[in-house]
Amino acid sequence: MTVAAITVENLTKSYGDVHAVRGVDFHVEEGEVFALLGPNGAGKSTSVEILEGHRKRSGGAVDVLGFDPETGGREFRDRIGVVLQETVVEKELTVLEAIQFHGDPYSKRRDAEELIEIVGLEEKTTARVKTLSGGQQRRLELALGLVGDPELIFLDEPTTGFDPSARRQAWTVIDNLRALGKTILLTTHYMDEAQNLADRVAVIARGEIIAEGTPDTIGADRRDVSIVRFVFNGDASVLPVDAVAGSNGAMEVKTREPVETLYALTSWAKQSGVALDGLTVARPTLEDIYLELVGEEENGGDA
Amino acid sequence: MSTFTLVRRQIKYQNLVFWRNPAAAFFTVVFPLMFFFVFTLIFGNEEIPGSGVTTAQFYGPTLAVFAAVSATYTNLAIGTAIARDDGLLKRVRSTPMPPWVYLAGRIGSAIEIAFISAGIMLGVGVLFYGVNIYAVSLLGALITFVIGIAVFAVLGLLLAGLSPNGNTAPALTNATLLPLAFISDVFIPPSANAPAWLSTVADLFPLRHFAVSFGKAFNPLETTGASVGDFFDLKSLGVMLLWGVVGAILALRFFKWNPQAGSKPSKRRRGRTRT
C-alpha cells in the first residue's frame, strides 16, 4: 500500500491579475523522489513555497504529511527539511556553528559532524561560512535541509551552480536519502538530474502541469519517435528525407519509421558519395521531450 | 531542547555574529566612546555652566544611553532588515524554531550588547574622567536603563519591518536617531537659549526621557539628600513604555519574514555604514 506524503488538488496562486499557479494537481507518495520541471516563472518555486508553508495559496487543497502547511506550525516544520534555492546562512558563523544553530529547534537532530562528512565539508568544519566557495555553500545548505532528520525533503534547484563532480556528489547524497526511505520533492532545470534521481516527474508551464510520468515514459506519444542526426554541409533540400538544419551542417530528422528513413538516407548517400559524418540514431531523451512540451506550450500560449 | 535553552543558545549565536562583524562592533562600542573623548577634549572636563556637573559627568551617562540605543534600535533595525533580505528569516521559518524564540534571541543579544557598551562608556568615565556613581540612584538608573533599551529594541524591530530593504534601514535609523539625539540632551547639554517648543517636541519621543532620567541619577545636585524612589521618574518611564507598547503592536503588524520584492541579498553582510 502506498501513502501520499503530498497531495495537491487544484492549487491556485494569484498576485492581483497575475495567475502564477493555475489549478495544479499532483501527489507524491511516501518514499518517492518526485521532480517538478519547468522554465523560470512557470510556477515551480511558488508551488513548492506553498507546500513548505512560506506562501499562502489563493485556492485549492494541499496536504503535506497530514498537515495544511499554512497552519501546520512547529509540529509540521519538525518533520520537513527545506533546501532553499539560494544559500542563506549567517556568514560570520562557522560551518559547524551554522549546522548546530539551525539544528537546535528540531526534536530529532542529526549529528553535526556526521552531516558535515555526508556533504563533504570536513576540511571546512571550523571555517567561516563567508570563506566557502559557492558550491561549498550549496552543500552546507543541503546539510541544513537534513539536520532535523526529516521525513520529507524539499530540494529547490539543489545543484544549480555546482561543477559536474560536485553535482555527482550531491546526487549520491540524494540517492542515499532515497535508500533511507525519505520522500523528496525536487525542482530542477537539469533534465539529467531528473532522469538520474526522480521516480516520477511533472512538467509545469504557465502555472499548469502539462505532462506527468516517469522519466522514461513521460510524453508517451512522443516516445515512438527516433531522432537521426548527421552532418551534411549542403542544402538540406537535396536530402531524400525531411531534415532540420542546425549550425555547422548538423542535420536532425525526426521519424516514426527509422528503418525507412535510414534506408532512404543511406542509399542516397552511397549513390551520391556523401559521408554522413557522425550518423546516429537515438531515442528522445527527457530533455528532448521536455523542450518539445514546453516549446509547444509557450508557442500555443502566444498564439 | 527546552525553550529556555533554545533562547539562550539563540542569544549566544547572535552574539557571535555581532562580535565577529568589526563594523557593527565599532559603531556600537567605539563610536560613542570617540564622541566622549572628543566632547571632553573640546569642552574641557570642567563644570558645565549652570548645570552643576562636569563635562564627563554629563556625557558619560548620555553617551551610555546613546551607545545602548545604537546597540538595540540601530543594530536590530539594520541587522534584521539585512537578515530578511538575505533570506535568513525565511530559513528560520523553514525550521521548527518558534518565531518569538528567534526574535527573543536577537533582542536578548542586543540587550546584552547594550549593557556591555554602556558599561564600557561609564567604566571609562569612572576610571579616567572622574565620573561619580551614587548608591542612592543605582537602582533607579538600572530600571530606567532596562526599560529604555527594551523599548528601543522593540522600536528597532518596528523599523526593520518598515524598511523596504536592508539598504534603507541605516538611512531610516540615522534619520530618526541623530536629529533626536541633538534635541534630546544627548549630544548637547540643555541650554537656556533653546526655544521652548524644541524641548516640547523632544518630549514627545522616548529618547529625551531615557537620557534625562538616566542622567539625573549621575547628577550630584539631584542625588544629594535624595531617596531611592526619587530616581523612578514615572512620567518619563510612562512615555517610554507607551512607545514600547504601541511600537510592539505595530512591529507585530509590520514584521515580515520573506525577502521583499526588489531587495537583494547583501554581498558583504552586515557592513553597517552611517551616513
Automatic annotation (TrEMBL), chain B:
Name of the protein described by the UniProt record: ABC transmembrane type-2 domain-containing protein
InterPro entries referenced in this protein's UniProt entry, alphabetically: ABC2_TM, ABC2_TM_bact-type, ABC_2_transport, Nod_factor_ABC_transporter
Record domain ABC transmembrane type-2: where: 23-258
Organism: hydrothermal vent metagenome
Pfam family, one: ABC2_membrane
Membrane spanning residue stretches: 21-43, 63-83, 103-128, 134-159, 171-188, 237-255
Location of the protein in the cell: Membrane
Keywords per UniProt: Membrane, Transmembrane, Transmembrane helix
A GO molecular-function annotation: ABC-type transporter activity
GO cellular component: ATP-binding cassette (ABC) transporter complex
UniProt cross-references to PANTHER family, sorted A to Z: NODULATION PROTEIN J
Membrane topology value: Multi-pass membrane protein
PROSITE patterns linked: ABC_TM2 (PS51012)
